[in-house]
Task: inverse folding
């Protein structure tokens, strides 16, 4: 008879998986955290003990099966342990975005009927105390970091240390309680509630079972051969399904080590120190990393700049082919140049990016620009695309190693079925499918067809090789008045490849032409301006400088030249653009917490600017409110310039000529 936790077949819930790893690899490192510059480590056996103490502490406070617990903060071991402790008691953890303002949190707390919360620090405690008058159901707030909280008299506040002390007392008094609670858990129980980004309305609570998440994690692990030897850096929001799958579910299935950075500011340094073997990031992170590289190169000596650009030309020519093992397609001369480039440029660059040991890197969550994707692959980073949603456990499509195409997301993963509806929408059946939307049977029925297919809302098609190609959100794909396809996200991603452009919003459906709002990247453009002696007082001032408009116009026209080579999208070149007077911000409702553009909201909020773009105006005076992180509001005024952009003959027209 096997010892408790040693039978892998019986590990069909996350608490039982934790017991399994504690039994079979108890002395191996399970998780690390960097604190005050020092990496602290916990073994699987220690993690199991920490979770046991936290779970028994929650039980001592009155937490019962079926209840929900909010988890709020940056990626911290104790927050992950809180989720495992909640699951051990048959409860449901509800991670919230740590940068959400109090009012946004209030909706989720009310909707999820939360009575307990485990938070990182004083900032999150203050938010919950602010809204508690409106939500008295919140009974207990447990905090990890005690700094600044010593003189808080609230009796409902409790440190994580004290919670565990209560738990150990409870465990001694009720020795069989914890193991019995884990035994009561079933694979079909809800394991976590993850809220959607709320692009078009209030977010919905997506209920995933232990079975669905374990199936998704297991499928991913088998697909790319992950093992207990792998390392990941956990830095993405805990409320996002990507982090939950890769830093929690997969770690508990495969038994690999999760590393928590000291702060969001130290992620690049921590990435280099850990050297993960497996890395996941949304396109925005890869864009920011590339922007940092380009800024540093602009400050480098002229010889280094020439060396960099020369060998990047070599990489663009043959790097992806070498990555995919297609060396027969690369000349001997290019192979030799690439080898030299790897010694002088690509290897040091991967090291600076913290990607020297990466075996597999994935991006998803939004479409990635082909040029950005090609850049990383060309320097030797095995970057691949995946496709999925919160509702499918991010388990739909992945690109196999050696069969990567820039414009596709790969074939369906094992166990996944995909069909294309008559309207072009991608519909999915996946082992990682949601159980339901919490308290929203209407939304569940609207999202899942009567025959069990989840409606993704994305428009796409299969190519000749059976790879799925996503065009855009189905509701966003439209047409210009001349019938040309208008895919705004595709255009926006091309714009965002440039390090000077942080965000873009394209308009054109049912219009005569395509236009765009541009957000400049303050770091990149600020550095560019300073080196040219251009003084500025802040974002709004810099954004309206003629020199900055010239810089952005150059980027826009490069995108137009690229679009001209596409017969389907050639007529959707950007005819007019403006540089927004403020950065698009999630606090102002313009972006979701996962940095997705709320296009409809922006079009309505800045209707005056949209109308000016299409009316042919050269400028537009605008005044509006902005919201600060502490909830205060302010007013911003600007006279926004509008420019025409050069367009190019479409490929088919040149052929006809």
Result:
């Amino acid at each position: 008879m096997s010892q408790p936790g040693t039978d892998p077949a019986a590990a069909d819930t996350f608490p039982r998986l934790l017991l399994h790893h504690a039994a079979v690899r108890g002395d191996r490192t399970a998780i690390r955290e960097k604190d005050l510059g020092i990496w602290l480590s916990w073994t699987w056996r220690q993690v199991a003990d920490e979770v046991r103490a936290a779970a028994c502490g929650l039980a001592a406070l009155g937490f019962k099966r079926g209840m929900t617990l909010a988890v709020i903060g940056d990626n911290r071991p104790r927050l992950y342990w809180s989720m495992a402790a909640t699951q051990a008691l048959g409860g449901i953890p509800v991670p919230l975005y740590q940068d959400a303002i109090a009012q946004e949190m209030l909706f989720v707390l009310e909707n999820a009927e939360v009575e307990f919360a485990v938070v990182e620090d004083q900032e999150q405690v203050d938010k919950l105390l602010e809204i508690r008058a409106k939500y008295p159901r919140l009974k207990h707030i447990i905090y990890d970091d005690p700094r600044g909280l010593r003189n808080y008299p609230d009796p409902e506040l409790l440190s994580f240390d004290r919670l565990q002390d209560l738990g150990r007392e409870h465990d001694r008094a009720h020795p069989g309680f914890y193991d019995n609670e884990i035994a009561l858990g079933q694979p079909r129980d809800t394991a976590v509630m993850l809220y959607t980004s709320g692009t078009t309305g209030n977010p919905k609570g997506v209920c995933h079972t232990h079975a669905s998440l374990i199936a998704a994690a297991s499928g991913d692990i088998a697909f790319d051969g992950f093992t207990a030897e792998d390392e990941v850096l956990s830095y993405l929001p805990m409320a996002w399904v990507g982090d939950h799958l890769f830093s929690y579910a997969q770690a508990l299935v495969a038994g690999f080590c999760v590393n928590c950075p000291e702060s969001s500011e130290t992620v690049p340094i921590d990435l280099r120190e850990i050297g993960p073997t497996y890395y996941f990031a949304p396109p925005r992170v890869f864009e920011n990393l590339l922007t940092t590289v380009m800024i540093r190169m602009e400050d480098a000596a002229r010889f280094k700049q020439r060396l960099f650009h020369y060998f990047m030309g070599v990489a663009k020519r043959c790097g992806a082919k070498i990555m995919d093992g297609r060396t027969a397609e690369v000349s001997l001369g290019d192979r030799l140049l690439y080898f030299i480039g790897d010694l002088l440029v690509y290897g040091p660059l991967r090291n600076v990016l913290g990607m020297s040991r990466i075996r597999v890197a994935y991006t998803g969550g939004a479409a990635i620009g082909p040029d950005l994707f090609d850049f990383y692959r060309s320097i030797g980073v095995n970057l691949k695309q995946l496709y999925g949603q919160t509702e499918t456990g991010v388990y739909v499509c992945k690109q196999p190693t050696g069969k990567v195409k820039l414009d596709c997301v790969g074939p369906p993963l094992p166990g996944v079925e995909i069909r294309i509806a008559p309207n072009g929408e991608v519909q999915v059946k996946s082992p990682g499918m949601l159980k339901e939307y919490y308290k929203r049977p209407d939304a569940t029925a609207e999202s899942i067809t009567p025959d069990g297919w989840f409606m993704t809302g994305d428009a796409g098609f299969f190519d000749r090789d059976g790879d799925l190609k996503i065009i855009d959100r189905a509701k966003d794909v439209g047409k210009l008045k001349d019938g040309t396809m208008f895919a705004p996200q595709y255009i926006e991603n091309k714009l965002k490849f440039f390090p000077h452009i942080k965000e873009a919003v394209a308009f054109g459906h049912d219009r005569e032409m395509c236009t765009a709002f541009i957000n400049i990247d303050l770091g990149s453009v600020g550095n560019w301006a300073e080196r040219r002696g251009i003084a500025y007082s802040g974002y709004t001032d810099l954004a309206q400088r003629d020199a900055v408009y010239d810089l952005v116009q150059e980027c826009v026209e490069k995108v137009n030249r690229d679009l001209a080579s596409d017969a389907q999208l050639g007529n959707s070149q950007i005819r007019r653009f403006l540089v927004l007077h403020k950065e698009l911000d999630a606090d102002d409702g313009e972006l979701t917490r996962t940095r997705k553009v709320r296009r409809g909201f922006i079009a309505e909020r800045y209707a005056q600017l949209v109308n000016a773009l299409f009316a042919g105006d050269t400028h537009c005076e605008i005044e509006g409110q902005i919201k600060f992180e502490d909830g205060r509001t302010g007013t911003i005024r600007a006279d926004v310039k509008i420019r025409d952009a050069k367009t190019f003959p479409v490929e088919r027209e040149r052929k006809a000529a």
Observations:
- The chain has 22 helices and 27 strands.
- The longest strand covers residues 633-644.
- The chain has four domains: 8-276, 282-387, 395-433+440-474, 478-656.
- The first helix runs from residue 14 to 24.
